[in-house]
Amino acid sequence: MKILLGISGGIAAYKTPELVRLLKKAGHQVRVACTRNALELVSRIALETVSGEPVLFETFTPRTHPGVEHIDLAGWPDAVVIAPATANVIAKLACGLADDFLTTVLLATPAPVWIAPGMNTRMWEHPATLENVQRLIGRGVGVIGPDSGELACGTSGPGRMSEPSVIVGILEEHFARPRPLAGRRVLITAGATREHLDPVRFISNPSTGRMGVALARAARELGAEVTLVHGHLEVPVPDGVVAVPAGSAIELHRAVFEWKDRADLLIMTAAVGDYMSASPAAEKMKKEALGATLTLQLVRTPDILAELAQSGNDPSGAGTAPRAPRPKLVGFAAETAGGDESRLLELARQKLSRKGCDALFANDVSIAGAGFAAETNQGVLLFADGHVVWVPQGTKDQVAASLLESVVASLLL
Ligand code: C5P
Q1: Is pLDDT above 80 for 60?
Q2: Is the CB of 365 under 6 A from ligand 1?
Q3: Fewer CB within 10 Å: C terminus or N terminus of the chain?
Q4: What are the C-alpha distances in Å from 293 to residues 203, 277, 296?
Q5: What is the CATH number of domain 185-412?
Q6: Which of the four CATH numbers 3.30.43.10, 3.40.50.300, 2.40.110.10, 3.40.50.1950 does domain 2-176 have?
Q7: For 113-156, how does the pLDDT look when each residue is reduced to its tens digit (9 = 90+)?
Q8: Is 34 a catalytic residue?
Q9: Pocket perturbation via mutation, ligand 1, pick of 268, 269, 354 by most ligand atoms within 8 A of CB
Q10: Mutate which of 267, 304, 326, 365 to test ligand 1's pocket (most atoms within 8 Å of Cβ)?
């Protein structure tokens, strides 16, 4: 594998030649990009000697080859690890700042990124740092450590960069994982649509987009190229995922039809509004003019999933006309089954046949831990061939991983 090691200016930078050595020993190609501060703490010559490559840290250098160096380097690695990751580099990455060579590469790379934080305990435990780390985790960045122990500042506590051998072990484990979706393209919809009545009012629903975003992350982990068509989200889009914003059901319909031919699998997690205003007002409706009551005329939105399923069917019905290729389709159904599993399954069966999709995941939003805004989910995954997989309660990441595992095994292998 090609690994880019990013080094920022924490004292643990002195351990990085050993990290390079271990990565090379494990058979990887390693290049190093660092901040200027890092070079106060570790010798450039040492890094260049162990990596066998020049250490890169300057954004503006005389051109020695065609192209733009930080963009070329950003496209090179299979994985990026920043060790040590200081509070400063973590904050920059969380905000998308790119004010030196390393952070510019980090913003431009499509490769998965790990950080191995190394800093003083107070800096690590500062709410700003913890919040930034959470943001990065939400975007799919891996966090290695930090360990607890003696720190360079003479104190003891969490903040020590993980040992180089541990960092290498975690990367190796990642590379060893199967990637059944490598080379496959997955289109996922997520979040709530907003159907505007006028420029300042809309009809929507409580979807946060967590489930769809968890699926996008899980599909990335399995090696897929992922596009996320999303309405309103309350969580960030994971790194490495192409985000296509779509505010309303009509916009989501347009975006999905635009992207569907480039997808092997479409998972419709979005909570798409079923009705929209028949005649949204171009200007703000005035209460004074409307009076005490307001009657809205709503019309049905297009059923994207059903339309897509139909688009793959033989229009002659005789089995003679060629089928339009379409991605495998997985729908979602939020049902109120009052905790009754057989009723949930029956509702899922009805919806699957009505929609004509290949699989449908139904969850019972009337039970605790399976609702829209919950951190967890559970439910039943039903396939068009009739087989059923019950997914037990877990975090949305865990549910996403087991859903994808079943979907990949049944629809894509
Ligand atoms: O019909 P219902 O809204 O219960 O179906 C839910 C499933 O259908 C979800 O996968 C949702 O993304 C999709 N859907 C759609 N177009 C709509 C409404 C829902 O594709 N207009």
Answers
A1: no
A2: no
A3: C
A4: 17, 16, 10
A5: 3.40.50.10300
A6: 3.40.50.1950
A7: 999 999 999 999 999 999 999 999 888 899 999 998 888 878 88
A8: no
A9: 268
A10: 304
